[in-house]
Amino acid sequence: MRPTALLVTGVMWLSAAVAPLAAQSAAPVAPRVVTLQSGLSSPWGLAFLPDGRMLVTQKPGSILLLDAQGARILATLAVPPVAFRNQGGLLDVAVDPDFPREPFIYWTYAEQGSGAEKDLAGTAVARGRLVGSALEGIEVIYRQTPKVTGSGHFGSRIVFRPDKTMYITLGERQKFDPAQDLDATLGKVIRLNRDGSLPAGNPGISKTRPEIWSYGHRNPQGAALRPGTSELWLNEHGPQGGDELNRVLPGRNYGWPKVSYGCPYGAPKGEACRYGGGTHEPAYEPPVSFWVPTSIAPSGLVFYSGRRFPQWKGDALMGALAGTAVWRVRLEGDREAARERLFGDLKERVRDIREGPDGYLYLLTDSGKLLQIRD
User: 295-317 burial, b for 16+ CB within 10 Å, e for fewer?
Assistant: First the structure.
């Protein structure tokens, strides 16, 4: 079947054989939004400990430990200095899959250079043991190379696979061409062991950077495993339009900046301005979903697997910054079947979205809020 162009809440998209989401939903539960915290300082990443307590990163450079209800801040965990400027700072956070036996907490951040590189920065990954209300034995386990000028497009999300190796998404730092350079880790997804060493089974597409899993990415700020698989999905910012939801396969090239459904900033709206004409195949892996002619600026990503909202079961849910909403994407196999804009009345820049152990959804917003979506 040939793709059909549809218009959903003012955003053009492509799909084949699309059915309305409402018709596909069974026993829908009307969600409501509860504010758990306000006044947070530029929150960026959220993770849950096995007992339900929450970790929230704040871009200026601290990790908050919250109780399982999200109501009380139990401790502020200090981390080494971060390059807090524009899009840079303390970013994602993740919990070791063997916690508490292996009580490691992992985080990504913008790291300032030193010496001759003091005016440069890049994404780095660190970890430390959570002992009581402090992080001990902090070590940097990975640094993006090379460090470059500027304070944008750091990525970055951490996702653990079932084999306990980790994916890390790395932005191209607004430098365009390095996303295609297999001797650099700008604009890449990498895969590492928990201690930062190289695992077996990477695709081996680079002789100098064997940690590279995929390339040709722009600024991937949301990432999640599809339930029941080791398959990574991510969303990434396009330029003017061209935001993407991608199924990430080993060794594949996702096109940036050779091709994009987005346009250079300031270009007239339309198709003629698209990078490389827009069409990815056969040279580049096409996105599963894309947003044109304007950007929604996608952020955190989760596949809903809980019982609270059966109408969302198996769907991809992701935050939007410019789009000030949560987008829900229903998949049939590896193709988009339908999508829906949710919670637009909040008028919040949604920075991260996570499913809690209780099956509720939790949002971080750029206005400094922790929100719970509950029944």
Answer: bbbbbbbbbbebebbebbbebbb
H helix or E strand, kind and range, residue 23 = helix 21-24
Structural domains of the chain in order of their starting residue, each with its CATH number: 34-57+150-374 (2.120.10.30)
Torsion angle in degrees (nearest 10) through CA of 170, 351, 246, 125: 20
Query: What is the distance between the alpha carbons of residues 181 and 192, in angstroms, rounded to a whole number?
Result: 19
Burial environment of residue 95 by CB neighbours within 10 A (0 to 12, 13 to 18, 19 or more): buried
Question: Kindly report the CA angle at 65 between 64 and 70, in degrees rounded to 5?
Answer: 100
- Tell me the catalytic residues: 153
Instruction: Kindly tell me if the per-residue pLDDT of 160 is higher than 80.
Output: yes
The CB density around residue 26, as the number of other CB atoms within 10 Å, is 7
**Res. 30 pLDDT band, cuts 50 70 90:** confident
Tens of pLDDT, residues 36-52: 999 999 999 999 999 99
Residue 180 in tokens? 């295609």
